[in-house]
Amino acid sequence: MSNEATVHAGTAHPAGPANIASYIDHTLLKPEAEEADVLKVCAEAAEYGFKSVCVNPIWVKTVTTALRGSGVLTCSVVGFPLGATPTDVKSFEARGAVLDGAEEVDMVINIAAARAADKGALTEDIAAVAETVHAGGAILKVIIETALLTDEQKVLACQAAVEAGADFVKTSTGFNGGGATVEDVALMRRTVGPDVGVKASGGVRSLADAQAMIAAGATRIGASSGIAIVKGEQGSAAY
Questions:
Q1: Catalytic residue among 106, 125, 167, 209
Q2: ∠175-177-182 over CA atoms, to 5°?
């Protein structure tokens, strides 16, 4: 499990502008993103001290090289954004990302299994990817896609993630409806307890948004408006 979750979960005092960057996964997941866009995001992450840069798998090598020596982690996504690929394919994709340099992997669950309340299928899917990711020394965040689930299904998905050995649960891809809400973050934190991370992503566009998520129990923020957040401005990015 992530030590980071233990340290920050349920923090009583939301992060301020001086340290909010350390919570942020600076994100570029647009399918049309080009190398110049990716390198720009890496330079921004190094300048502002973001926790990681999160990109699609084709850019992991580029990001790993660009961030070398910066202290910023490389993060990639698996089964993104639908989660509707077989488990062995997700595991293969995760292995490739880790081999290319990803230190964190954000996977999308089998959303249909969550909606069907099939906890066994959820756990097996996540556990297989967790084993692959952990074997490479990386950590696993599990995207449950809250916008598509009832509260009961969200709880079930979070329980499956914990049982499968995930390091984090994450609210959203940002591509399938609504993003993070304070209520969902609080529900996820209550479900996973203090020793698993909670990542709020999708629609976090301001310092106030980020602080509210952290106060509710988030230990990581996924955003493409990271610079606006640290400057105390209002971001306009969709994710």
A1: 106
A2: 105
